[in-house]
Amino acid sequence: MHLRSILRHRTVLSTSFRILQNYSPTVSNQSNYHHLIHQKPVGRTSIPIQRYLATNAKPDSATSSTRAEKHHFQAETQQLLHIVAKSLYSDKEIFIRELISNANDALEKLRYMQLASGDQSIADDKREIYITVDDINNTLTIKDTGIGMTKSEAIDNLGTIARSGSRLFLEELKKDKAATDEGKIIGQFGVGFYSTFMVSKSVDVITRSYKAGEPAYRWTSDGSGSYEIEPLVDEVERGTAIRCYLRDDCAEFSKEETIKQIVKKYSNFVSAPIYINDVRVNNLRALWMEDSKSISEDEHTEFYRFVTGQYDKPRYTLQYKIDVPINLRALIYVPQYKPNIFDVTQEADVGVALYSRKVLIQAKANQLLPRWLRFVKGVVDSEDVPLNLSRELLQDSNLIRKIRLLLTQRITRFLQEQAKKDKPKYQEFYEDYKLFFKEGIVRTADQGEKEDIAKLLRFDSSREEHGNLISLDEYIERMTPEQKHVYYLAGPSRELCENSPYYEAIKQKGYEVLFVYESHDEVLLMQLAEFDKKKLKSVESELETDTKKDDTILEGDTRSLSQDEANTLKQWLLKQFGDKIKNVKINTKLDQHPCIITTNEMGALIDNALVTAGLVEDPRLVLTGLNKLLEKVLEKY
């Protein structure tokens, strides 16, 4: 007898003795034992699947009715199996997610069949998933009490690569107009099971269909291109159990704590309860799938802390769902904590996780939100999200762009609503997160997106007390009929802005002026350029582009130089400064200041700086200004 067989038989005896030794008919043990066996009506005996999978031994003649049948995988070639098992997935731990998703699908299928048939014999059965780890024998077992498989179904679904039993089940389900909630079925590609061969030397599957009179079967393979299937004499309980005989370099997947962390990461929100060594591990509900009115503040706080790993509370909560044109469920949080300089400046991932049918696809779904929204946290779930074969990467860039646009617009609109609902609270939030909004305006090339973000900006105003900020929408509502532009003035403080000669000149017209104090604010407003079809103009540039055609001074103005004196002074200044200045103009609008200096080089300097810093995603946007410059050069030379 081979050494491996001897060791297996020894394990059978020791494991069986241990089960008998540990079990006694107390209330506690009866409760634990119920997890291992599906009780049948009186007069029939059901053997738990664990009888076969609680050991490392293959069934002997006492449990197998006939010699095992050997089959070759039907789907295409052994090379395809190798690709699926060895090269398809980026991370080995993904196989846990795939097996749990398959188990959950089996439970959902059983529920649908019970509803459709009205079969009361399975109506009250527990629908659960059990995971057992054995770090001594280096095995991992995942079992469900679901629909199970017949022999032909096992051959079709396990013996044919890229054939999805779940997908076929959904197609049949959709034909039944009375069927609902088909979105709870997760599988669609038919390759998830084969991820087990990333970590396993061999895999055993024990399964029995829910159909009356169907025997149980053992399916086994080492992933080399063939498999064996054999019926089992004893009546095994309904469901499917998969045992992975782990490779030596994958022994970490036989550790309870490792599996617990993986389950919480990927499958914490599947509808079925999941037990690891008889202890339930998925206790949180998928709040984004529930009615927002039924969720308490404490539940939101608990969920927020799970998603973010932080210990504060959400400042704002947005629950969003649509079915047309895209199926989308989202639960978005704005943190209470104030971001530090590293949160603002570092190129961090977005804080939103992508789920599909409550199964984690990407923990950091960078494609779903623009970079400037990286401060929001939460989850997005969509049945329509286009996944690749491994269900790890997103495909169909057009659809992803639509999802991104929908989410961005909804979050932006939500923040606008909050600003109207509670102005002081929003103003506090704005002071904490304004740099993200400004970054968004500078980064995006689309004017519509710029203006959507700009609705979130707030400014100090010449018509308001310092600190009472207003929006651009409020500014435009208060514009006088003859005013054509939105005016702003940059300065270190409000006091300096109010005493600026530039403000003095525009104040005489009675126009409201926005005061900005940060060094980057002028760059921001130049990048925004316009809002609601109104140009944003610095009061400095307004003076530089004064429509006054000549330097005529009104006669009789005793406060001013005479016309001759002004002309003489102008020529003297042009001679003294030479190439250092472009022009000298006579201005009669200043009362408190003798002169002002304007510059039109800022725009070019800003464009060059933005391109060099990599903040302009599309440098072609600068071409218009360069073309005009080239035309002037050609005209001169």
Largest sheet: 9 strands, mixed
Fraction of residues in H or I helices: 25-40%
Major beta sheet, strand line-up:
1-6-5-4-7-3-2-8-9
Poorly predicted spans: 1-45, 54-62, 164-170, 177-189
> What's the CATH class label of the largest domain?
Alpha Beta
How far is it from the N-terminal to the C-terminal residue, by CA? 99 Å
CATH homologous superfamily (4th level) name of the largest domain: Histidine kinase-like ATPase, C-terminal domain
The third-level CATH topology of the largest domain is Heat Shock Protein 90
Please state the second-level CATH architecture of the largest domain.
Answer: 2-Layer Sandwich
Please indicate the count of domains: 3
Mean pLDDT: 78
Structure summary, number of beta strands: 19
SSE blueprint and pairings:
Layout: H1 3-22, H2 27-34, H3 50-53, E1 69-72, H4 78-87, H5 94-117, E2 129-134, E3 139-144, H6 151-158, H7 165-175, E4 200-208, E5 216-221, E6 226-232, E7 239-246, H8 256-266, E8 274-276, E9 279-280, H9 297-308, E10 314-322, E11 328-335, H10 341-345, E12 351-356, E13 359-362, E14 377-381, H11 397-421, H12 423-443, H13 447-454, E15 460-461, H14 472-477, E16 485-490, H15 494-498, H16 501-507, E17 513-516, H17 521-528, E18 530-531, E19 534-538, H18 539-544, H19 563-577, H20 602-613, H21 623-636
Parallel strand pairs: 2-8, 12-14, 16-17, 16-19
Antiparallel strand pairs: 1-6, 2-3, 3-7, 4-5, 4-7, 5-6, 8-9, 10-11, 11-14, 12-13, 15-17, 18-19
Helix pairs in contact: 5-8, 11-12, 12-13, 12-17
